[in-house]
Amino acid sequence: MANERTEAQILAHAPLTLRLGDTDYEVKVLGFTKAEEWRAEAVKAVSSIVSVYKSDCGSNDIFTQGLAFFFLQFPGKMLDLVLSYATDIPSDTVKKEATDEQIALAFGQIMSIAFPFTKELGMISRVMGIASTLTQ
To answer: For the whole prediction, is pTM greater than 0.70?
Structure first.
């Protein structure tokens, strides 16, 4: 991933740089407590959309499907989540100037920071899948 943060950036608590419209915004990475609040907001937003379709977000697969549906059907909610993470960004300017692609990229950058274990969990899942085939 082109925007993957380096270990040095993570350890230095370096801000994210989000380009929205023609402006680069430096966004402070939230500490654990604030990030936990934002994660709860993000999960609630996706869960509320999935629940409309009579599904429970109790499994990762259903949540992931809900997230994909969320991206496709509710890009305004994605922008709302970007702006709720990056509270110093002028929302009116961003809403007028940012492209859909920039918003999606910014959301992805925030998600990778807010849910940092997803890459490791995916790897663990793949290893466990491989291990289960070896025992058969």
So the answer is: yes
